[in-house]
Design a protein that fits this description.
9 strands, single chain, 6 helices, alpha+beta, Alpha-Beta Plaits
Amino acid sequence: MIEKKTAPSQGEFVIVKINKVTPHGAYCKLEEFGIDAYLPISEVSSGWIKNIHEFIKEGQQDVAKVIYIDLSKNAVDISLKKVSQKEKKDKVNEYSSEKRAKAIFDSTIKLSKKEAKKEEIISKIPKTISSYQELLTMAYEGKDPLSACGDNEFKTSFYEAAQKNVRPKTYTVSYNLELTVTNPQKGVVLIKNILKEIASKGNATRYLGAPHYSLISTDSDYIKAEARINAAEAILAKHKNEIDYALKKTNK
C-alpha cells in the first residue's frame, strides 16, 4: 500500500536541502521525510576542503547517501561524496517521477471531488504497490491497480489521466556502419538497396560521409531494439560477397 515513509534506511539515497552551512559541516533537511540530517565536512567532497562554502551553499538541493541513522537520538548523517553521478541522476529522476505521479493522483482526487474518500481509496490500493509512479504506470498499462478502490468514477478518471500523462520509456541503440562495395558494377545502387532493406526492419539510417553511416533502432523494449540491429547485420552478411562492412556500437 502507498504510504509516506517517516525515515530513510541506512545506505539509502535521499534528496536533501542544505539549510545552514558551518565551518565543520551543514545542517540539512531530508525533503522526502521532513526530518533533519547532518552533513560532516569530511563527507562533502573527496578532496581536501579549505573553505566549505566553495563546495556547498545554503538553499542548495542535492542527492546524498545516508551513512548513519539512529532515530532514538534524532541522528541522521549523510554524505555527498559517496554518491556517483549515475546514482545522483537516477535518484533525481525517481524523485521527480514520484512527485509528478502523486500530483496526478491528487489532481484526479480533486477534479472528481473525492477528497472525502481519499484515505479510503488509498487504503484499498494493493500493498504490493509501493509508489504513485508504480500505480500510474500500472494504470497506463491497463493492469487495473485500483480494482478494489470502491469508486469507479475516480478509477475511470485516474486511468484516463494515466493515458494522457504517462510517457513510455524508450531505448535507443546506435551503431556506426562502415560500408563499401567490392563489386564496382553495382556501386551506389547496391548500397541504396541494402540501406532500404535495413530500414524495412524498423531501423533508421543516416549518411555521415562515405563510407560511414549511422544505424539507429528505438523501441520501448531494449531487446527488440537490439533485435532490429541484428536483423540489419543479417542483411549485410547476406551481401558479404559484394560488400565490406563493419558495425560498431556507439552507445551503451
